[in-house]
Design brief:
160 residues; 7-stranded mixed β-sheet; 3-stranded antiparallel β-sheet
Length: 160
Amino acid sequence: MKDALIFHSGINSNNSNVTEEAARKAMKGLAYVPVLADFCEIDGERDFTTHAFEYDEEEDKIIYYEKQIGCITADEPYMEPDEEVKDRMNVYARVSIPRTYTDAAEIIERKGGTDISVEILVNDMSYSKETGLLLNDITVIGLTCLGRNPETGEIIRPGM
């Protein structure tokens, strides 16, 4: 079984920068974080979509369309240097996706894996011209399986 790349330190495509210290601290709270997915069907093939929610201003709450399809296990997460990007550390953890209730495991197997997007709470951040937006303290609150835009069929890439 291959462990999942949950997130990484350093600059990501959203132009924020998770410090290595913040990544190490966030690793301590990964056990049982939910894995979520929203589903679509394009040309007869099931896939995931993206973060699927909306904000209800009247109720002042977020309405999630994603379903929980699994969770990160209590196995110890770990960090390894990225082989391609200098000064980046990757955080890995074991994820459990049951075969009952959804076809998420089948989708992941058919695709040979799937990109994910980490959902975080930012507890502390700073900004400077030299470093950009530094995320100094984060909490991982979920992982979302990514697939395709159900309207355009375009592949959705992770921000991190």
